[in-house]
Amino acid sequence: MIGAAAARTQDIHILDNARRSYVRKPAILFSGRLSDNVKALAGDAYELLKIKRVAEDHLLVRDEAGQEKRLGEAPPQIAAIIAFDQTDQELVDRASDGLRKRRNNPLPAPMLIDADDAAGFAALVMSNANQLAKKSAEMTTSLFRQLAEARQANEELQNRFAALEAFIDRHGLQPFELAFINPPAEDDTEPNVLATASNARISQILPVASSGVSGVALHVAKPAPRSEAILQASLASVEDGRVIESWSIPVAEIEAGWMTLSLKSTIAGLRRTLKLVVSVDGQRADLPTLSLGNAQPLALFRLQDAELRQSVSSSSLALQVYVGLPGVVPPNRGSFSARAAQDNDAPGLREMSLPQDALTQTQQVHLDDDSSGFDGVTYLEGEHTLSCHPPAFGTTIARIAGGCPAGTLRLSANLLVAHEKARDVEFALVVGREEGRIIDLLSGTSEPAPGEGFSGWIRVPAKQPRFASLYLDAPAREAGDLYLATRMVDPGNQDFAWARFMNLHALVQG
Amino acid sequence: MRARKLNKPANEAKLTSGEALPIAADQHSFAPGLAIVIPVYKHSVLMTEAVESALAQLATFDIAIVIVDDGCPFPETESIGTTYATAHDNVFYLRKSNGGLSSARNYGIDFACDLFPSIEAIYFLDADNRITPPAMQDVFDFLKSRPEIDWVYPNIDKFGIGWNGSYQAPYSRLLHLTFDNICEAGSMVSRRVFDACIRFDETMKAGFEDWEFWLQCISHGFIGANYPFFGFDYRQRAESMLRDSHRTKAAIMAYIREKHKKLFMPDTLAQWEHEESPRFAAIATGTYAVSLFSDPLAAHAKIDLETFIDRYWASLAEPDAHGIPPFMLWIAPAHLEAMRKIGVLHNLLWHAERLSEKHHLVAIRLEHDPGRIELKLIEAGAPDYMAKKPLAWMCSADIFKACVDDISDEWIGSIRGKRPSPDTVELVIRGPFKAFDLDRTVLSATNGLLSTLGVFRDSAYRRIANTRWTWRGGYSPPVKKHYRLLREALGASPVLPRVATAGQAPRIGFLLPIASFGGVEKVAYAMARVLVRLGYETHLYVLGKSSCEMVFEPGDFTSVNFLMDDYPLWGGAHHFAGHDLMMAQDEGARVERLLGLFAGLDVVVNCQVAPVNAVLGELRRRGVKILDHVHVLDRTRSGRSAWHPYIALAYEHIYDLILTCSEQMVDWFHGMGVPSAKLMHIRNAPSYEMRESEVRTVLRQRQRRGMPERLKTLFIGRLDSQKGIERLYAAAVIIKRRKLPIDIRLIGGEVLNDQARGSWTERFAEIDIKL
User: For residue B460, which residues of chain A lie inside 8 Å, CB to CB?
Assistant: First the structure.
């Protein structure tokens, strides 16, 4: 059957007065007598449409079944236009002209072929098919060329991006920011939600868009150090059903307080909704208790049983969501890396959280005569954060002995005023060669000397997390003290000024 | 995990683990459950992203992908469309003459519905947009799980010029008509809609054809819902068809409003407000059941206080998606019912709403008065301010929030006393209440308010308040501000909270300057009585006073309404034939307030309220029939004919009909240029129709008495020249002078100021005739 092998299914849209019809074949438009030989050659591969009339706005044709159809538009794929009799040539030419007006792509030229010339018919159809194949090949090679260019552009972007990541890591320009915090409820009397959910599987819609997210922290109220179970966590984007990251953590390793689940790399791309699913594999007799936040009025964000897709609590999980630039590695301590995490650390540099021992020993200091007697510094055990409540007038200063480890290039912290009714508070981080320099640096009467660093005063409105860093001109040769300071922007009323330094960490060389 | 197949041939499919292998289209009978219609015009290359995203769908059902080339002049469109149709059995490429986006979508709809009886829904994907792989399955499931909804629309996630907007508020027709097109064209629409012959309007080629499409759906009773995790990506560039549409938005909207006039009618919008964003939350004293309504007399939702608290805190966190009514009311249901009985309930709420926006609190008190209905505003400092215990309280939700936030009880707690610290006004309603209605208040509304506050303050939600969790920005206005959308749409403020019921009889409003015992009033009341008998619903509006004598039967009017304002009954900055006129733009016209007060009326009969003509033109434009009732052609002191008939001439254009008290008046108007078709004489009738038995009794009594020695005469009416009182006085003087056996008695009063002639009461007294 000539042409059958080369024929490809094709939709043809034919407009009929009575109804729209639809065929999946290339069309052969013809006029005159259709010989049996030609019919046999065309076989089932083509729709044979006999031209009956050419009107201003349509072409009237009749198919092999004898049905008449009005073609308002040219069929997308036309294999041949043929006059089988000289007397029909004028009709075929007019039909071809009419179709050409309604179509952008070229049509096969109308040809005159003797009705019994099966070979001529076959040659014409093959020739037209060849032209179509050539055109298709041109389109394909054009796409190959465009793809090659896109590949090269991608390669160049990759290289530029890698260089940018390395620079960011080296200079600590953009480590982490706390984008959202839902603190544990103070009167947390909720049951162990993992134990109450079907198959110990819970899910939580996150309140932050996916783009930029680099870590999620959950708060553990009660660990289960003797458990042999594995806590599984996965982060998926809801709209496209993609699992972005997953973690497997031995329950026995989980400590009380914030547990950070860090991503291999910060999520890029379009902004999507994130869902965190947490479950426990293995022995479920001894499960850690995840803390819940305060009561949640938005049903969509209440903690759900992942199997039943129903709320298991009237609260959300207590959680923190961190964001950063792509490629930035989160602090190691207290965090769990994604499954099969890659080592993205630049050689010689590492990010580390300040040791908990140092934080628990933090003391309030009074460095000048004006220092208020107000006692504002407390380490909040469950949250791993330092509370540094400013006085109504003046500054509260806290000292973390050894808070600037040897080799430090940068010290950073997330800042939060944890009560909505608070007025704006200013925060600062300072490293000074001697204690007497701290007031000078904080008051702005002196610039940091070599070996010193000052973050500047960072203004933090209530419930709007901010980030602060201080930089040393060269890696600290030996460990020193880190000073934290807070003061009211508008002195006089420090009610509810619950100032918090969170996620204190250092970028250390060596 | 449910098996899903990739809507793509097997050799191209990339499956994630756990997914079932695809079934090639030719290996099973192709019976798509869904069609994705992709209209293409000049997006020849970007269309590949749309088609690829459609092919990448993970679904348990077949999907037909229908590309409609709307006569695109670029050859690539045809090449690419044909290529996809050749390569994929479930892709259909259609090419048609250019007819615009609506026509292309309709072409695809008809094709899909004709060819595939199995299709249950159609999704519209514009050629430059994309969808995520699970989108169609998820949305299809959502649509099928909610039989009450007919289309599902997405949040908007724009790429290119990035923007993310949350459209998660419960679907609101009020919002959809008065705010913006909250439903993107990229929505999934149930086949029911297309079977109802709804199609895109092909005459709309400049944009917003999707908005109009949804309005057609609303007209047919269909409604939509948002699916919050849709997976729809909208490509936004600096310039687009949508941006062009915004440039000509006013003209397009004018077309839409004209086409869907019924949807934009005050009745329709008010009904939707009542159903979707009720304006009042009435907390029942005692039970704390919360009724949510705009119109308390229409069927409405009732929830418990706990649910209301949930909604309150959710509304603080995400006010665009959650809300409580903007006004809160503490009242016993019995008192609502008592006000309904005397017809003042809607008017009371209308005033209280306005006052709640101006003051912290509105205290409401009911008092018994058998002969009149009155609304009285008492402000701080007045002698009888807070003299008695309020029976109800109203405040705005904003004030309530401030009280919840402020945990000290001192300020709000002072409402227990007679000198409350909050700025409080008192609304006193006097009327023929039954003692039983007023006494049924074992529990105090004041305690109800304070107790409610206590419950809200102690809520566990308080600690998480005001934190937005939805990361997309809220696009819609706060739910509690929807009542303002209604106001803006109607140009009315506030809007009388009265909605039409099913099979509502036409509502006729009678506007009176005052409502005492005058002839104008009596004719109006008589007309109302007759119209009620004929099946109409009548409402009384008194614009110049805030009280009315109960000289009508309770059934004559469904409601009694007062403007309760310092409304001048004459005057204005414009002049016509020696009369001062008010126009809509004049400050004293009070257009917004009056349009709000008259909201929902089908017919207005203006019974001699001159300044109200300033707003009647706007009412007429909205389809309300406007009638004028003219009672008398007055004369000035110098004998010039004047007043209301001339006012009617000035505004004749807005009147559908002028009703007169005499044939003579009909002639006068005709002579002054008013067509006969606009004139109708209302024949005089007795104010009080005596029953036959009463007539017989009176005649019998008269027979028994016999003929009196002196003729007893009685005049009932106003003592002023308009009633010809000078002629009566002259006759009385002659009777007295000649000592004729005639007794004269007068009942009535001086209403119009007849200063030039002095007091008629005194002059009659001088000849020993007392009033």
Answer: 294-295, 314
Q: Which long-range contacts (CB under 8 A, 24 or more apart) does B401-406 make?
A: B401/B316, B403/B453, B404/B453, B404/B456, B404/B457
Look up residue A187 and give its two tokens: 């009167």
Q: Answer whether B314 sits within 8 Å of A298, measured CB to CB.
A: yes
Which of helix, strand or coil describes residue A386?
strand
Which residue from A11, A72, A294 is facing B460, i.e. has the nearest CB?
A: A294
Using the Cβ of A77 and the Cβ atoms of chain B, whether some distance falls under 8 Å is answered with yes
CA distance B461 to chain A (A): 5
Q: Computed from CA positions of residues A113, A118, A124, A128, in that sequence, does the dihedral angle turn out positive or negative? A: positive
Q: What is the pLDDT of residues B90-135, one digit of tens each?
A: 999 998 889 999 999 999 999 999 889 999 999 999 999 999 999 9
The ipTM (two decimal places) reads 0.83
**A300 contact B CB<8A:** yes
Instruction: List Cα–Cα distances, A233 to A200, A336, B37, B568, in angstroms.
Output: 12, 11, 39, 73
**Strand-pair partners of B547:** B374
Angle at B373 between CA B370 and CA B379, to 5 degrees: 120
Place of tokens 């409502």: B515
Whether the bond between A450 and the residue before it is cis, its omega within 30 degrees of 0, is no
Closest CA to B483 of B467, B497, B465: B497
Contacts of A102 in chain B (CB under 8 A): 97
Residues B368 and B430: beta-carbon distance below 8 Å: yes
Q: Tell me if chain B has a CB within 8 Å of the CB of A366.
A: no
The 10s digit of each residue's pLDDT in A265-295 is: 888 889 999 999 999 988 777 889 999 998 9
Q: How far is CA B756 from the centre of its chain?
A: 48
Mapped onto helix, strand or coil, the DSSP state of residue A48 is strand
pLDDT tens-digit map of B320-339: 999 999 999 999 999 999 99
**Of A65, A67, A60, A61, which Cα lies nearest the Cα of A49?**
A61
Paired tokens of B343: 């017809």
Integer Cα distance of A340 and A342 in angstroms:
6
Query: Of A10, A13, A105, which is closest to B94 when you measure between CB atoms?
Result: A13
The rounded distance, in Å, linking the Cα atoms of A498 and A422 is 7
Q: Is B648 exposed, middle or buried (0-12, 13-18, 19+ CB in 10 A)?
A: buried
Q: How many CB atoms lie within 10 A of CB B241?
A: 14
The DSSP element (H or E) to which B234 belongs, if any, is strand B232-236
Record the tokens describing residue A403, joined without a space: 């808070």
A419/B contact by beta carbon, under 8 A: no
C-alpha span between A292 and A435 (Å, rounded)? 41
Residue B415 binned pLDDT confidence (cut-offs 50, 70, 90): very high
Contacts 24+ apart (CB under 8 A), A229-233: A229/A280, A229/A281, A229/A282, A229/A283, A229/A284, A229/A286, A229/A287, A230/A280, A230/A281, A230/A282, A231/A278, A231/A279, A231/A280, A231/A288, A232/A278, A232/A279, A232/A280, A232/A281, A233/A261, A233/A276, A233/A277, A233/A278, A233/A279
Count Cβ atoms below 10 Å from residue A246 Cβ, excluding itself.
15
Q: Do A390 and A486 form a contact (C-beta atoms < 8 A)?
A: yes
If we measure between CA atoms, which residue out of B103, B265, B237, B61 comes closest to residue B177? B265
Residue B587: the pLDDT is 84
Report the candidate in A45, A49, A44, A15 with the shortest Cα–Cα distance to residue A30.
A49
Q: Which SS3 state, helix, strand or coil, does residue B533 take? A: helix
